[in-house]
Amino acid sequence: MDKRFAVVLAAGQGTRMKSKLYKVLHPVCGKPMVEHVVDEALKLSLTKLVTIVGHGAEDVKKQLGKKSEYALQAEQLGTAHAVKQAKSILADEKGTTIVICGDTPLLTAETMEAMLREHQEKGAKVTILTAVAEDPTGYGRIIRNENGDVAKIVEHKDATDEERLVKEINTGTYCFDNEALFRTIEQVSNDNVQGEYYLPDVIEILKNQGETVAAYQTDNFQETLGVNDRVALSQAERYMKRRINKRHMQNGVSLIDPDHTYISPEAVIGRDTVIYPGTVIKGRVVIGEDTVIGQNSELENSTIGSRTVIKQSVIVDSEIGDDVTIGPFAHIRPDSKIGNQVRIGNFVEVKKAQFGDRSKASHLSYIGDAEIGTDVNLGCGSITVNYDGKNKFMTKVEDGAFVGCNSNLIAPVTIGKGAYVAAGSTITDDVPGQALSIARARQVNKEDYAKNKHKK
Ligand code: UD1
Ligand code: CA
């Protein structure tokens, strides 16, 4: 196989987005557009991938990190000028160079492979990925000659009324013979409505030089959607969501309402897991089998075991075991590790806390900076008092301990193995294992108090 290279164009500001955020960093299903593009391109066994950065260069580099090499386009003079910036990295190479726009997030490696096959078979110097758009407004149009061969691409703004009727569009994705690309790119002029150096002009130049120009038409326009504004961004979001959700359903996950279930591209979900509407799964989330994720739950960068039930809850940067029930309305904050068969009930907040197997905090608790052993019962309203305004302190509740309702555990403090804390206690000192600690004022009943008061 020929060596393969890729150039991803990502230097534009994206004026039409009307945003502080650079266009290619706008997320689709939680992942920046340009990263979707780069991740797909990386599936093509590339020797090098170069991203052209300009506006927001540092932010784009930070996002993509080592996935790409970078070339700076200091001034955005057009897509041909953008590709030219990769000259020092690519111009001496022999092989095939794929050029992709950073604002076409739905494009798949399969489609690019199909374009590459066509390119190979035709022995072309350039192959354009085209699609038929119901509404081609804004896209470059593919102009074919009487034999049906591609003659040139005309930008929407430069097109005649007749050319604008053409529905076959340039998707902005091409593969080139690398040497031909860097040779002809020097010949592109900026003599057009926008005064820009257009990459698509390379096609007409090559054609006029008698080179073979090929086109691969995909029947999936959605996949080639170019995102220039927020309307297109919302369409991209919808298509990507459908694609992700379909994949999970085909893998054996039940989505009760896939139109209202939002799953990140990285999520991994086991078979027979059921996800109810309004659930948002962000970042790297791994969910086991036979788990039920209740409606309107939000899971982010977390691992959830099998046979666990999560209802109307928020879980961030945490690990949840098997056979656990969480919620409704629980909040599991970062660095929490919940064992197996644990129960975290309604209005319980957990932060940076470990729960051993079979432990429970069933109602109305705050458990932060804590190590809870196995088989512990934290009664309704148990609170770890972990913060003195400056520093955070640890609470330890050892295996089998029972903390009565409405107890304050003032950290640092340890409740020993199998100990009891009486309801309403404010615990400031360690409780030895097996002990009962009562830390509350004694009850005083004043007989006939009310009767006497009313008499006065
Ligand atoms: C471009 C194509 C058009 C095609 C459409 C597909 C050109 C001239 N037109 O139009 O034929 O139908 O994509 O979506 O190529 N960029 C740079 N540097 C620049 C200019 C642009 O890096 O100087 C980057 C942008 O960040 C963007 C990509 O190139 O990711 C495409 O630029 P954009 O301005 O969106 O081009 P379109 O008008 O959509
Ligand atoms: Ca575009």
Automatic annotation (TrEMBL):
Pyrophosphorylase as annotated region, ranges: 1-230
Primary enzyme class: transferase
Residues that coordinate or bind acetyl-CoA: N386, Y387, A423, R440
One example GO MF annotation: UDP-N-acetylglucosamine diphosphorylase activity
InterPro entries: Bifunctional_GlmU, GlmU-like, GlmU_C_LbH, Hexapep, Hexapep_transf_CS, NTP_transferase_dom, Nucleotide-diphossugar_trans, Trimer_LpxA-like_sf
Subcellular location: Cytoplasm
Stretch list, region Linker: 231-251
Active site (record annotation): H363
Chain sites annotated for binding UDP-N-acetyl-alpha-D-glucosamine: 9-12, 23, 73, 78-79, 140, 155, 170, 228, 333, 351, 366, 377
Signal peptide: none
Cofactor(s) essential for the protein: Mg(2+)
Protein name per the record: Bifunctional protein GlmU
